[in-house]
């Protein structure tokens, strides 16, 4: 008898990334799709405000805001994901998150989303692994797919999406 678990078809059972991906997630919309990030990463949600541009940054880096005396870089998640840029509306929001930076530091960053939906509690059995889309597509930033009701929410690993190198050498550590 083999100590290596296997499925009935003889293929090895692979434990997916979705195991343990449960908890509270803030959900938001981008281009009519629903996404979620761990509520533990979220510091606050604010409405759109004046964003100062910073030269020589990638196009998805919209600039910086002054949030109660702290300068916070802001990225447009639509542009980071290669989606079409839209004009901001009264529903457009900035989600302020803390992401892992170099040497165990944290970086506070604002992400622009179309609109914030709600906080949902997602159970482990509601999360499936990320489907494979072929070797040319990087999906390492997706934690899993949450089946909620008749819909699917894409759960994001915000630390993998927002890397320090994306900000052109700006010192962003808290």
SSE order and pairing:
Blueprint: E1 23-30, E2 33-38, E3 42-47, E4 61-67, E5 70-76, H1 77-80, E6 93-100, E7 106-113, E8 115-122, E9 127-128, E10 142-148, E11 151-156, H2 158-161
Parallel strand pairs: 2-11, 5-7
Antiparallel strand pairs: 1-2, 1-8, 3-6, 4-5, 6-7, 9-10, 10-11
Overall 3D form: globular
Share of β-strand residues? 35-45%
> Could you estimate the helical fraction of the residues in percent?
under 10%
SSE pattern, N- to C-terminal: EEEEEHEEEEEEH
* Cα-based radius of gyration, to the nearest Å: 18 Å
User: What is the CATH first-level class name?
Assistant: Mainly Beta
Number of strands: 11
What does the model show?
The chain is mainly beta and 174 residues long. The protein has one domain: CheA-289, Domain 4 (OB fold (Dihydrolipoamide Acetyltransferase, E2P), Beta Barrel), CATH 2.40.50.180. It has helices spanning 77-80, 158-161; strands spanning 23-30, 33-38, 42-47, 61-67, 70-76, 93-100, 106-113, 115-122, 127-128, 142-148, 151-156. A hairpin with a 2-residue loop joins strand 4 (61-67) and strand 5 (70-76). The longest helix is centred in the middle third of the chain and has 4 residues, at 77-80. The termini are far apart.
Structure, briefly:
The chain is mainly beta and 174 residues long. 5% of the residues lie in helices and 42% in strands. The chain is built from two helices and eleven strands, in the order βββββαββββββα.
């Amino acid at each position: 008898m083999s100590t290596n678990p296997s499925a009935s078809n003889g293929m090895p059972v692979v434990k997916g990334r979705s195991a343990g991906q449960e908890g509270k997630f803030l959900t938001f919309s981008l281009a009519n799709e629903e996404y979620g990030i761990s509520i533990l990463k979220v510091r606050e949600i604010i409405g759109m405000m004046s964003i100062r541009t910073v030269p020589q940054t990638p196009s998805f880096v919209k600039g910086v805001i002054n949030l109660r005396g702290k300068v916070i870089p802001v990225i447009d998640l639509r542009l980071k994901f290669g989606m079409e840029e839209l004009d901001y509306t009264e529903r457009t929001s900035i989600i302020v998150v803390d992401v892992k930076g170099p040497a165990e530091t944290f970086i506070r960053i604002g992400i622009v989303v179309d609109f914030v939906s709600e906080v949902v509690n997602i159970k482990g059995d509601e999360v499936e692994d990320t489907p494979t889309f072929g070797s040319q597509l990087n999906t390492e930033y997706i934690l899993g797919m949450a089946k909620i009701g008749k819909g699917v929410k894409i759960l994001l690993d915000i630390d993998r999406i927002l890397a320090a190198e994306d900000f052109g050498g700006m010192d962003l550590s808290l």
